[in-house]
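Ticket #4471: structure output looks truncated?

Reporter: J.K.
Steps to reproduce: submitted the chain below (319 residues) through the standard prediction queue, then opened the result file.
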Amino acid sequence: MRLIDAQTTCAALPFDRLIAALREMFIAGCEVPRRHVHELQPGDPQGVTSLLMPAWQPSGCYGVKIVNIAPGNAARGLPGLHSSYLLHDAATGAPLALIDGDQITARRTAAASALAASYLARDNARHLLVVGAGRVAALLPEAYRAVRAIDRVTVWSRQRAAAERLADAWRHQGLAAEAAADLGHAVAQADIVSCATLATEPLVSGGWLRPGSHLDLIGGFTPAMREADDDCFRGASIFIDTDEALAKSGDLLGPMARGVFAAGDVRARLDDLCRGAHPGRRDAAERTVFKSVGTGLEDLAAAMLAFGGAGELSAGGLS
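Returned output as attached by the reporter:
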């Protein structure tokens, strides 16, 4: 069994190849049971939640990811998410690789948002606003630049110093980047607003969003979490990654309970977009919202790419 560390996993998952691999997997499909969710400290909002996410193709690979989410880690100066991925041969059950799950999770999450944006953001979208300053947020400009000609990036975080550090890191990568002091003003200026936080109360107001904008909601993967208020969904074309979003996401459950929209109003899932069953954005004035909660399909696609890519990198000297 191969051990693929964080550095090698990252190098094996460049966003152009990863986005293509996700698109191909959404078209081909795979078996994805509902995730197992376990609260290690029940009732504690700062406690650890553990997710078990299996997926397989009967004639291909079988993988399981364990994700531990710890909101309390922010106060400890630690990442809020840790994960590992075990990839097997589906035909024999033999383990193939233990892969760094943090890199898989972060990179496939950013790649899935970019994949959705390739169908939902305006072709001429140039200004990206990132809400949040964590591991996934840091990757979003690189991922989005694989599908749109992003030439301006703004970042907002409750911790202004974290936003300033991230903007500085992006500037060192050659991006025109700045930290925003006022979230409402930043949202009103952006073509694409991508939220990657662990917020439990809405951060983005629909009244701030400009016509033709695309709102990408990455956080809010439990019923208790929200990044967007109800007005973000009123008058918008709503898309989701999988049907599980309708059962898991506080961003969707709250507005649906209040009659803002119904499940039947959702235009399409990400697999519908990839297969061409729905065209995505219809015109430049349409306001789109994409809500994701993540899926084991994305993890499996990333793990298979990492497994193959790590072999290439090892042959080339990086291991």
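Triage note (M.O.): checked the attachment and the full token line is present. Residues 18 and 302 are 7 Å apart (CA to CA).
Status: closed, working as intended.
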